[in-house]
């Protein structure tokens, strides 16, 4: 039996991929890269973090912490590969079961 954490990968995703993961669509303002195109068959994404930041307390989590907001970055999106700069959000990729 494998540990659930062995199937989880932390991602840094763009706004378009975050909106698609949350709502199933991102509207007309998405870039020219297909959102979530790097998510493989049998894999899926959930928004949020695997582990909270060291300074995040239990009270912070109950009120809604900001650990999933990674801020502005020029790093390419892990879910679609877009190189456009913008806000990045934490997400978890759940790998397909083998």
Would you give an account of this structure?
This protein is of the alpha+beta class and 98 residues long. It has helices at 15-23, 58-63, and strands at residues 8-14, 44-47, 69-73, 86-94. It has one domain. Strands 1, 2, 3 and 4 form a four-stranded antiparallel beta sheet that branches. The radius of gyration is 14 Å and the shape is globular. The protein starts with 7 loop residues before the first strand and ends with a strand. The chain contains two helices and four strands; from the N terminus they run βαβαββ.
> How many whole angstroms does the radius of gyration measure?
14 Å
**Main beta sheet strand tally, sense and closure:** 4 strands, antiparallel
Secondary-structure element order, N to C: EHEHEE
Share of helix among residues?
10-25%
Report a brief summary of the structure.
This protein is an alpha+beta fold. 15% of the residues lie in helices and 26% in strands. The termini are close together.
SSE blueprint:
Elements: E1 8-14, H1 15-23, E2 44-47, H2 58-63, E3 69-73, E4 86-94
Antiparallel strand pairs: 1-4, 2-4, 3-4
What labels would you give this structure?
alpha+beta; four-stranded antiparallel β-sheet; 98 residues; single chain
């Amino acid at each position: 039996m494998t540990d659930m954490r062995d199937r989880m990968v932390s991602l840094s995703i763009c706004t378009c991929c975050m909106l698609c993961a949350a709502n199933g669509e991102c509207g007309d303002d998405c870039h020219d890269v297909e959102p979530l195109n790097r998510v493989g068959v049998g894999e899926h994404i959930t928004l949020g973090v695997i582990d909270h930041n060291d300074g995040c307390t239990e009270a912070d989590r109950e009120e809604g912490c900001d650990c999933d907001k990674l801020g502005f970055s020029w790093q390419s999106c892990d879910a679609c590969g877009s190189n456009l700069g913008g806000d990045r959000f934490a997400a978890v990729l759940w790998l397909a079961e083998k």
